[in-house]
Amino acid sequence: MIKCGECGYENMDGLDYCDGCGAKLAAAAGSTAAAPEAAPAAAPAAESTDAAPAAAPETSSPEASSNEAPAAEVPKSEAPTGEIKPEAAPESEPATTAAAGAPFKAKLSVVRGGRKGQEFPLEDGNNLIGRWDPETGSFPEVDLDADDPEAKISRKHALIRIDGGKITIEDIGSLNGTYVNRQPRLSPGSPAEIKSGDEVIIGKTFLKLVVEPIS
Rounded to two decimals, what is the model's pTM? Predict the structure, then answer.
């Protein structure tokens, strides 16, 4: 079995994409393979700590003891000025919170070939486009089952990913393909960046990407 690194779903061997969320299984395998390589790096760190006590006796000369007196006076004179207090710590906190999510809200709106005006909010991370699968119980974030009476849309058709300020769409091996702005069919496994106003064609359903900034 191959365990998905995105949702934890266990897939059958030989699959390239997760049956649970549509994420690439090769990416999950690559992340787990890189973990053991970090272990040997901890061994040299332990050796460096052994060398530190050996250097301590050499600095116990009379000259070294005379130099320690003025070093102790420096923090006493600097303490009242407040220069020792770190000011960079509070500034780093808002920077991490700003990068946690996208600075906008995105959604797909059906404009033709289905329930016109139907909207599908998109979340940060992976958003699977397809149809509900009764066999696996998979519910895609963009479920076009009601907009596809002719079953032109695959159960797992495409994947939209929102990562920070970037939105990409990727065909994940659909039968009838994925198209952006009526350009040539997207190659499976090759994400293409999309922006607000772009038209996405899935089967016979036309959708429009709408991006609204968060005020």
Answer: 0.52
